[in-house]
């Protein structure tokens, strides 16, 4: 019996600083960034220790860990993982083509993002579906796994451990759940993204016994149109005015260490919070955590057996 292909999709990141311009151009639908925009993005990568390399390596480790977990759970040879990235090679289409070249006839597509939005996960799945159709591959899809018990338990542990980072400040601390903002028009589209993020956040707060928590948005794009808010910096400003002295950020819309976490939170938000008199810490990311891999494996097996 031939292996079931698993297309593991994520946003993608450049392999080196030399690739930042091509990467940014792809994000901008073929329009090169202005020198100012390129300098801004490049400086953010440079501000992260080690540049962009850890980000790419992290995705590779996640896919390798998922392959090991699938082999352990279903037996070696049952599933074969392929990467497909939205804005960098190997692109989503490359991943599907690689499956076809290996003779894969059935596959499952999954995105390294627990919550579904038609503008994010939905776009990944659409590209995968269209390419799979060209190659005659029957593709099952995982839309979301935002309440999987293993996912919630792994994040519960990270919130509980994260509060310890605040030391004496943890008493009265607020847990601030966050996720990548999207254009505000998704609300009119009845997109499930905001609701699923709140469901994930509440499930973690309940599991961790957290009474004081909020949800906020981060990393909005600069498109000239409204994006979901409030932004985390606005939220931190309001919390400071209310007298909050300690915040634990739990970016539950992300699963790995990358730019939106290592720069937007660890550098930008932390500096802003300190200026406002707030002690800000962040939970450790899931990365290749075994419980996260179990959540992905369960979701893949369920889709494959439908």
From TrEMBL:
Q: Where does this polypeptide localize? A: Cytoplasm
UniProt: Fe(2+) binding residues: 180, 260
An example of a Gene Ontology cellular component annotation for this protein is: cytoplasm
The record's listing under SUPFAM superfamilies reads:
Chelatase
Could you tell me which pathway this protein works in?
Porphyrin-containing compound metabolism; protoheme biosynthesis
- Enzyme Commission no: 4.99.1.9
Q: Which reaction does it catalyse?
A: Fe-coproporphyrin III + 2 H(+) = coproporphyrin III + Fe(2+)
| Top-rank EC class of the record's enzyme | lyase
Record has Lyase as a keyword: yes
- Where is the chain membrane-spanning? none
Keywords attached to this entry: Cytoplasm, Heme biosynthesis, Iron, Lyase, Metal-binding, Porphyrin biosynthesis
Q: Belongs to which family?
A: Belongs to the ferrochelatase family.
Name the job this protein performs.
Answer: Involved in coproporphyrin-dependent heme b biosynthesis. Catalyzes the insertion of ferrous iron into coproporphyrin III to form Fe-coproporphyrin III.
Protein name, please? Answer: Coproporphyrin III ferrochelatase
Give the classification, highest ranks. Bacteria, Bacillati, Bacillota, Bacilli, Bacillales
Q: What would be the name of the gene that encodes this protein?
A: hemH
């Amino acid at each position: 019996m031939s292996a079931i292909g698993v297309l593991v999709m994520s946003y993608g990141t450049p392999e080196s600083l030399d690739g930042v311009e091509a990467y940014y151009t792809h994000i901008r639908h073929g329009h090169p960034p202005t020198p100012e925009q390129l300098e801004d993005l490049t400086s953010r990568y440079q501000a992260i220790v080690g540049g962009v390399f850890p980000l790419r390596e992290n995705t590779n480790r996640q896919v390798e860990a998922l392959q090991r977990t699938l082999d352990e759970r279903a037996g070696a040879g049952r599933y074969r993982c392929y990467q497909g990235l939205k804005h960098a090679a190997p692109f989503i289409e490359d991943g599907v083509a690689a499956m076809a070249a290996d003779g894969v006839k059935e596959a499952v597509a999954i995105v390294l993002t627990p919550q579904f939005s038609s503008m994010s996960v939905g776009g990944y799945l659409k590209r995968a579906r269209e390419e799979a159709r060209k190659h005659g591959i029957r593709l099952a899809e995982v839309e979301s796994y935002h309440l999987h018990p293993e996912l919630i338990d792994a994040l519960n542990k990270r919130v509980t451990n994260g509060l310890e980072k605040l030391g004496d400040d943890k008493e009265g601390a607020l847990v601030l759940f966050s996720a990548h903002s999207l254009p505000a028009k998704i609300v009119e589209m009845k997109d499930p993204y905001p609701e699923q993020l709140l469901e994930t956040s509440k499930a973690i707060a309940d599991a961790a016994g957290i009474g004081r928590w909020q949800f906020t948005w981060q990393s909005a794009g600069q498109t000239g149109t409204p994006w979901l808010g409030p932004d985390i910096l606005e939220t931190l400003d309001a919390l400071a005015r209310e007298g909050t002295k300690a915040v634990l950020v739990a970016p539950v819309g992300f699963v790995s260490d990358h730019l939106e976490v290592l720069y937007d939170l660890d550098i930008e938000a932390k500096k802003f919070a300190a200026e406002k008199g707030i002690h800000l810490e962040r939970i450790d990311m899931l990365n290749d955590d075994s419980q996260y891999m179990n959540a992905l494996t369960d979701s893949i097996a369920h889709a494959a057996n439908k």
